[in-house]
Amino acid sequence: MKKFKLGLAMLLSMLFLIGCGGKKDGGDTSAKTYEVYLGCDNAEDSVTYLLLDKFATLMEEKSDGRIVAKRFSNAKLGGDVELIEGAQNGQVTFVVQNTAPQVNFIPEVGIFDLPMVFPNIEVARKVLDGPLLDKLKEYYAKQNIKLFGYGDQGFRQMTSNRRVDSYADLKGQKIRTMSNPNHIEFWKAVGANPTPMAFSELYIGLQQGVVDAQENPLETTIATKLYEQQKYVIMTNHVIHAVALIGSPKAIEQMPKDLQVIIDEAAAEALAWSRKIADERVDGRVKIIADSGTEIVPFNETLYNEMKNAGKPIYKLVADKIGADLVELIQSEVEKVSK
């Protein structure tokens, strides 16, 4: 926290220097440069940071250098919660992060907790670019956050020391989950024994047998070598791992309108690019796992449908928290896009 506060203090002092080269009397702004600050809680070798870096580069290129982007990985500007708060108060210009920590600020983001709501990643991306995105932008705006859109790291997948070929194989499995009540209730519903555990403790937890299984996008499973402690990776596709690109209205609205247009264009282009990179990295991660000797259990539509059916009570649970309209919207959009 001390490091975060120091970093923010430095940023605030630097903000006063923005605009060097322009007239102090508010004249020609075309000569001014504007420093923007982009942060994430992830390492540089991750889809999250690659999206951040691509967005930063595009802003600089499209603005002919009028936007100077400062990139910060590995929580150098604070963890996920601090980054959201920084965006709200204008101390951090842009943030790229998973949607999970945003639920505490925007409850409607709990829509991403619906199990098996997306039949495949293509449908998911089309839905997340449609009316649902427009609706979610309204909820973010109410919390003083600008939502540009969503990238992803594909679906979250289950790993285990017990092979899962059928619904019955899930019974009693001690699976580590995030401290997310919707996730916990889902794994209970499918017969597993969900065990919330800090991510920092997960590798040792698997090693010592405290838990049998865990679930994460393949990128995370590889980056932290969790697969080394697991015999199987089961392609369950149970929840999308969405990555949100958000910004600070307070900071953005101080910039000239033409640069705001450039920012929107750069965000759209970076998000589209990041999805292609995510697909490429998933394919590469699958190869790493296969080469390691950990067995990959391929996607099983029967298992998927059985887990989805068992998880139906979670839809009501989420609807009771955020409203049935939003749950009905995502379901109707999935049905429409799937056709």
Quick synopsis:
The protein has 339 residues and is α/β, with parallel strands linked by helices. Helices cover 46% and strands 19% of the residues.
Q: In the residues, how many domains can be counted?
A: 1
Total helices: the number is 13
In one word, what is the shape?
A: globular
Q: What Rg, in angstroms, do the CA atoms define?
A: 21 Å
Order of helices and strands: HEHEHEHHEEHEHEHEHHEHHH
Question: Care to count the β-strands?
Answer: 9
Main sheet attributes: strand count, strand direction, barrel closure: 9 strands, mixed
The residue ranges in which pLDDT falls below 50 over 5 or more consecutive positions are: 12-26
Determine the CATH superfamily.
Bacterial extracellular solute-binding protein, family 7
Q: Round the mean pLDDT to the nearest integer and report it.
A: 91
Features of this protein?
alpha/beta, nine-stranded mixed sheet, 13 helices, 339 residues, D-Maltodextrin-Binding Protein, domain 2
Question: Can you offer a commentary on this structure?
Answer:
- Strands 1, 2, 3, 4, 5, 6, 7, 8 and 9 form a nine-stranded mixed sheet that branches.
- About 4% of the residues have low confidence.
- It is globular and about 65 Å long.
- With 339 residues, it is of the alpha/beta class.
- The chain has a single domain, classed as D-Maltodextrin-Binding Protein, domain 2 (3-Layer(aba) Sandwich).
- Helix 4 packs across helix 13 and helix 12 crosses helix 13.
